[in-house]
Design the sequence.
């Protein structure tokens, strides 16, 4: 069958939209059989055009018989709205989707085939009409297998004044300008289906679109020039270029997408890491909404709940001020408010309350959070509980200013308060008194009874002294057994004496420790402002000098500073400095005083006495430097030198063939308290090569009566070395007979104070007699020292005293003179 096209033009008035009644036309088609039959069948089709907005949709009838009668006809409006609208919307949505091109074409082909097979003669036309004048046009449909298209010239003449169609984009329908003047064979099963009739062209178009990437041009539809039945297949070069384009484009898209996904993943991981870090932080973190008036909390971390005791539910939405310590004046809060007002960061330390009401120190760091435009949107606050650190700092400050033993101010805080007292005294014209207190013989208690007992006594002394003070006064523990008191606002000498009397009364009553009582006395030195000095350091020095003068005056008293005391102190300091170098310089020498047996009248030993031969000052008396050596601790090194020198000298005399004698060396209280005393003595004796039985150690009664149990152990260890032990100055230490029998000693030595008055003082004679009898009863030998007269000697002989020593027989002699006396083999007499 040959079909001819007939186009009729329909114009619309300007300014008016097209209507169905205005554009209804008739289209006649001449049908001539192909087998030579000249019968012409005219079928008249009615074409209805429906206008929807600016889209023109045309539709033809379904079928007609050979006589030209219309067999069936759908409602035009229903046909257009249902079938044409459905296909156009569905196909358009598929091609404008973001799915793969192959999938788009496949879906479209299936949908088109389905609708065309159901209505093989249905035809929908859709195009954009930009001009107010538009043309509706139709086409004839084949009933058999051959379609001959009109030449282009005839086709264009049939179009007439219709707007140019060469630039149009139609959906799945060919433009008239693309049709060629030749026949196209169609598959019998594809009759009425343009999509299937052009399957070869569609395959070529799909390949082009898929391989060359022409889907980029599909936003406004597919150019129908692609759907040409005679389109040439793509060449290998086009396929290669297409595949290369697809692969490179896909790879580039993959890289870009992978990079984008990687960046997104990294960003998300960074956010998750930041969240985990905030959650794991030991510091409390708060985020506050700055743009809202009440600055509510919008986020807290677990550390906030742990530090403050408030849960997140209790904190969210509240102003952070509920964490402030109510009723506590904190100027730091003003700094926080000012920083928030000025939109800047700040760092302060605040006192805050936990939920349970406990106070803690809060190290707060506050910083604004800004958006991309630099505007503050939030504030982040970091809270650090520094309570323990603060306590540690306070403890360090306390230790820097307070004595750890007594809790009293130390020397550092004393200087500060004394300086303030002087400033007040200058301002108001008052006086100020500084007193230096040193406990008498406290070292004996501390060393004999242990440091624990001594420390307790120091605490009790500090408590009593603190009770004597007024608000303007200060008491400090400056070390050891020394205390300093500062009395401010002193206007008269009577007031000063009243204060001193209160101090001395502190030591009248005993100090009780458990069931034991201790009597402690003190020596006090006084310096006054402005009479003695106007500086704290100088006042303290002068008060200490006066304290030493009080000790020299007999202890348990007080002394005011005098200018002449300074010279004595300077002499004392110089003496101490010289004494520290006396041993190394060989300035110390030993003198030996003979000891005589009263029964045999022969010399059996000698007491060793140390002397200091100063190169400028000459011979210095032991009474002058021995107490100083005791106080400074130099007596330990001096005592070791004395024992070593005496043992070596005695060994030398015996090696020289002189009669063997024993040398008696005094052990000071400080030496006796040394833990290595026994080891030092054993080493010295062994080093000298002297037989231990020719070495005698003298220990004073006051030493052995302190911590008796420990003293007994030390004496037993010394005795085990083979030494002779004696108690020096017996009768002056109030020793108990129950203790005396426990001491492993060999000799009692009667103090010279008793021997001196035996001829004139009945009490002295009675004590001497009692000591002699006590010694004999305990199987101890008794020696009397300080025998200087014939009357004393006669008394001792009458009461059977075993041994004697004193100036009546010989004064202490240097080693050479004593050696000469020893060589004579005679009893020394004077």
Sequence:
């Amino acid at each position: 069958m040959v079909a001819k096209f007939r186009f009729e033009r329909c114009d619309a008035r300007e300014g008016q939209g097209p209507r169905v009644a205005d554009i209804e036309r008739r289209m006649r088609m001449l049908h001539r059989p192909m087998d030579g039959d000249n019968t012409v069948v005219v079928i008249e089709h009615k074409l209805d055009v429906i206008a929807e907005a600016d889209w023109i949709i045309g539709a033809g009838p379904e079928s007609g018989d050979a006589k030209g009668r219309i067999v069936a006809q759908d409602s035009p409006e229903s046909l257009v709205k249902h079938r044409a609208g459905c296909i156009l919307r569905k196909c358009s949505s598929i091609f404008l989707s973001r799915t793969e091109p192959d999938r788009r074409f496949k879906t479209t082909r299936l949908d088109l085939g389905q609708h065309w097979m159901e209505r093989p003669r249905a035809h929908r036309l859709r195009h954009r009409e930009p001009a107010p004048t538009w043309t509706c046009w139709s086409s004839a449909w084949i009933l058999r297998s051959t379609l001959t298209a009109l030449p282009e010239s005839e086709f264009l003449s049939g179009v007439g004044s219709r707007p140019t169609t060469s630039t149009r984009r139609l959906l799945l329908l060919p433009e008239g300008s693309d049709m060629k003047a030749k026949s196209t064979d169609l598959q019998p099963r594809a009759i009425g289906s343009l999509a299937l009739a052009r399957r070869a062209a569609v395959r070529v178009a799909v390949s082009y679109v898929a391989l060359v990437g022409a889907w980029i041009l599909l936003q406004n539809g597919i150019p129908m020039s692609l759907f040409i039945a005679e389109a040439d297949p793509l060449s290998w070069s086009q396929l290669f270029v297409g595949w290369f384009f697809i692969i490179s484009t896909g790879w580039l898209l993959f890289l870009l997408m992978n990079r984008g996904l990687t960046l997104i993943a990294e960003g998300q991981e960074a956010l998750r890491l930041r969240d985990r870090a905030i959650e794991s932080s030991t510091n409390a973190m708060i985020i506050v909404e700055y743009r809202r008036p009440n600055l509510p909390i919008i986020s807290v971390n677990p550390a906030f709940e742990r530090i403050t005791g408030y849960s997140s539910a209790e904190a969210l939405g509240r102003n952070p001020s509920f964490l402030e310590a109510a009723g506590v004046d904190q100027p730091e809060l003003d700094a926080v408010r000012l920083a928030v007002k000025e939109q800047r960061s700040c760092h302060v330390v605040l006192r805050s309350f936990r939920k349970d009401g406990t106070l803690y120190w809060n190290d707060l760091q506050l910083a604004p959070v800004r958006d991309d435009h630099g505007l503050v949107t939030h504030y982040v606050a970091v809270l650090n509980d520094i309570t323990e650190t603060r306590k540690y700092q306070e403890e360090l400050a306390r230790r820097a200013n307070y004595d750890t033993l007594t809790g009293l101010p130390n020397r550092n805080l004393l200087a500060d308060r004394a300086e303030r007292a002087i400033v007040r005294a200058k301002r108001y014209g008052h006086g100020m008194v500084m007193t230096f207190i040193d406990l008498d013989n406290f070292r004996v208690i501390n060393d004999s009874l242990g440091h624990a007992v001594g420390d307790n006594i120091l605490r009790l002394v500090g408590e009593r002294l603190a009770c004597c003070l007024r608000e303007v006064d200060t008491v400090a523990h400056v070390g050891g057994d020394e205390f300093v008191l500062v009395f401010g606002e002193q206007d008269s000498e009577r007031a000063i004496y009243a204060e001193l009397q209160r101090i001395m009364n502190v030591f009248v009553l005993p100090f009780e420790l458990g069931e034991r009582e201790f009597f402690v006395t003190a020596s006090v030195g006084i310096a006054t402002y402005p009479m003695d000095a106007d500086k704290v350091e100088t006042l303290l020095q002068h008060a200490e000098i006066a304290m030493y003068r009080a000790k020299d005056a007999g202890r348990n008293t007080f002394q005011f500073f005098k200018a002449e005391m300074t010279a004595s102190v300077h002499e004392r300091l110089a003496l101490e400095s010289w004494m520290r170098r006396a041993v190394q310089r060989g300035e110390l020498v030993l003198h030996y005083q003979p000891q005589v047996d009263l029964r045999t009248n022969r010399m059996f030993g000698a007491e060793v006495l140390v002397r200091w031969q100063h190169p400028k000052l000459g011979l210095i008396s032991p009474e002058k430097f021995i107490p100083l050596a005791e106080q400074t601790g130099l007596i330990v090194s001096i005592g070791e030198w004395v024992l070593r020198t005496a043992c070596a000298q005695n060994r030398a005399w015996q090696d020289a063939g002189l009669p063997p004698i024993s040398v008696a060396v005094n052990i000071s209280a400080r030496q006796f308290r040394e833990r290595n005393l026994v080891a030092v003595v054993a080493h010295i004796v062994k080093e000298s090569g002297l037989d231990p039985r020719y070495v005698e150690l003298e220990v004073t009664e006051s030493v052995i009566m302190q911590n008796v149990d420990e003293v007994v152990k030390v004496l037993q260890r010394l005795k085990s070395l083979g030494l002779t032990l004696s108690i020096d100055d017996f009768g002056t230490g109030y020793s108990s007979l129950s203790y005396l029998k426990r001491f492993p000693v060999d000799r009692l030595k009667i103090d010279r104070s008793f021997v001196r008055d035996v001829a004139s003082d009945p009490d002295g004679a009675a004590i001497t007699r009692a000591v002699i009898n006590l010694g004999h009863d305990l199987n101890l030998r008794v020696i009397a020292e300080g025998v200087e007269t014939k009357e004393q000697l006669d008394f001792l002989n009458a009461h059977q005293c075993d041994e004697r020593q004193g100036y009546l027989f010989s004064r202490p002699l240097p080693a050479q003179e004593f050696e000469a006396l020893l060589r004579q083999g005679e009893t020394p007499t004077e």
